[in-house]
UniProtKB/TrEMBL annotation:
SUPFAM superfamilies assigned to the protein according to its UniProt record, in alphabetical order: Ferritin-like
Compartment(s) where it occurs, according to its Swiss-Prot or TrEMBL record: Cytoplasm
CDD domains, sorted: Nonheme_Ferritin
Organism per entry: Limisphaera ngatamarikiensis
Record's protein name: Ferritin
EC identifiers of the protein: 1.16.3.2
Classification lineage: Bacteria, Pseudomonadati, Verrucomicrobiota, Verrucomicrobiia, Limisphaerales
Superkingdom per UniProt: Bacteria
Annotated function: Iron-storage protein.
Length: 168
């Protein structure tokens, strides 16, 4: 494996772990505001991000490279509203898509076909990730009173399921 691809996969491995940590923080923020549906959704999302990291880690291992875990920055938790939380998730996923694309470009330049195949899965996954975050932002924006927000909390997992079901 070329140095450039190894470096990119290590970076993305750690980026997925950072995303898991951030989603866990969003889950606690929601739990504290009595939004158990959103809390469960984000906790499940954190588990998915750890699985994404493991997918890259296993690829590195299979090719004789040790995955190296780095320190994880403190997640953001100072949100004024659920809308800010949803927008933060959207920003996270947009950044993650850029990270995947950068890794893919390194794999193309290096003609690293196994890494390209690995990253095809992630490119596809990011389409779903960006879809559910956009839908979450739209739905939270539309819930303009406390009652509507509680109703949305009861249904959020089912509502966003269709965006996620193709990959999981
Ligand atoms: Fe690992 Fe949210 O993508």
């Amino acid at each position: 494996m070329s140095d450039a691809v190894r470096k990119e996969l290590q970076r993305q491995f750690n980026h997925e772990l950072m995303a898991a940590h951030q989603y866990e923080a969003l889950a606690w923020w929601c739990a504290h505001r009595t939004l158990p549906g959103f809390a469960r959704f984000f906790r499940h999302q954190a588990a998915e991000e750890r699985e994404h990291a493991a997918r890259i880690g296993r690829h590195l291992l299979d090719r004789g490279v040790q995955p190296v875990m780095e320190s994880v920055p403190a997640p953001r938790m100072d949100f004024a509203s659920l809308l800010e939380v949803a927008r933060h998730a959207q920003t996270l996923e947009a950044a993650n898509s850029r990270g995947i694309q950068t890794a893919y470009e390194a794999a193309v330049t290096a003609r690293d076909y196994p890494a390209q195949v690995l990253l095809h899965w992630f490119i596809n996954e990011q389409v779903e990730e960006e879809a559910w975050t956009a839908e979450m932002v739209n739905r939270v924006e539309a819930a303009t009173c406390a009652g509507a927000l509680l109703d949305l909390d009861r249904h959020i997992e089912r509502l966003l399921e269709s965006d996620k079901s193709a990959g999981h």
